Automatic annotation (TrEMBL):
Main location: membrane
Keyword Ribonucleoprotein attached: no
GO process annotations (BP): lipid biosynthetic process
Organism of provenance: Pygocentrus nattereri (Red-bellied piranha)
Subcellular location: Membrane
Domain Fatty acid hydroxylase: 138-270
Classification via InterPro entries: Fatty_acid_hydroxylase, Sterol_Desaturase_Related
One Gene Ontology cellular component: membrane
Keywords linked to the UniProt accession: Membrane, Transmembrane, Transmembrane helix
The protein's name: Fatty acid hydroxylase domain-containing protein
A Pfam family this chain is assigned to: FA_hydroxylase
UniProt keyword Transmembrane helix, yes or no: yes
Length: 280
């Protein structure tokens, strides 16, 4: 129990440090002390690295819970309690994730830093409503993009076998399977995640908040646990799927294609009902 809280607090602290640093730089009363050569490009160049950091922290949090699976306090929230990751599964996921980050994510971070045109930093932070609306808007746009991509890569056999089958090696997802994906899928997802805040003309702080939230919900979808604080339990009217919805997709691969919300699957007849874990 203690280590769960430690990793959650570390993640929150790091997020607050990054946000506080950005506010210090863009705040009007700090303009005189901010280095004149700092531009939006310099901060955007750190986004992939910040995402990696948060991704590792969020995964560490859930992996500790998975390793402690013999604890009744943890295991009672397991969606598929009889299916636990083996050592070989964990090694394979770690290997694929490291390969993706070394050969794709890190070069993309360097390229973005080197080639992205500099843009002056905004002087004011966004209003809270603007920030929340921007995060939700980006999640909704990504939900549509990935729903189409995901549906095609399940319906067209060549696309599935060539690019997406690697992610479905596990019928009971666990946290390390989040980025157990092929290079094409990783590049596509990363491209949309980076492009969408630009298309929606979001403030840089909104873009950061979206990317951190996006990492969190992606890890949560694959964690294999239905905790009381899961986003699907907190968001009303069954409009959000969360880990229970995505777990069903790994059990029934031709259902629940949307990564976060439920409306596209309901509209196109690919929705499969799911239920929350009932704790004994």
């Amino acid at each position: 129990m203690f280590w769960w809280r430690i990793t959650e607090l570390i993640s929150l602290f790091i997020a607050l440090v990054h946000i506080n640093r950005l506010i210090e730089i863009i705040s009007p009363h700090q303009q005189s002390t901010a280095p004149s050569h700092l531009t939006l490009r310099h901060y955007l160049s750190f986004i992939p690295n910040i995402n990696i950091l948060h991704f590792c922290i969020f995964r560490l949090n859930v992996m500790i819970k998975t390793i402690q699976r013999k604890w009744p306090a943890v295991h009672r929230y397991k969606i598929q309690p009889c299916k636990l990751p083996t050592a070989s599964m964990i090694r394979r996921c770690i290997g694929i994730t490291l390969r993706n980050h070394i050969f794709l994510v890190f070069p993309a971070a360097v390229a973005q830093w080197a080639w992205r045109p500099p843009v002056p930093l905004p002087e004011k932070a966004p209003m809270l409503l603007e920030l929340v609306g921007g995060v939700v808007g980006n999640l909704l746009l990504f939900d549509l993009q990935y729903f189409i991509w995901h549906l095609l890569h399940h319906k067209v056999r060549w696309l599935y076998v060539t690019f997406h089958a690697i992610h479905h090696e596990f019928s009971a997802p666990f946290v390390l399977a989040t980025q157990c994906i092929g290079g094409w899928e990783l590049v596509t997802v990363g491209f949309w995640t980076t492009l969408n805040p630009i298309l929606l003309r979001c403030h840089i702080l909104t873009a950061w908040a979206f990317m951190v939230a996006h990492v969190y919900v992606s890890v949560e979808d694959h964690c294999g646990y239905d905790f009381p604080w899961s986003s699907s339990r907190l968001i009303p009217f069954a409009i959000y799927g969360g880990p229970s919805k995505h777990d069903v997709h790994h059990q029934k691969p031709n259902t629940n294609f949307a990564p976060h919300f439920s409306h596209w699957d309901k509209m196109f007849g690919t929705h499969a009902d799911f239920s929350f874990v009932k704790v004994q």
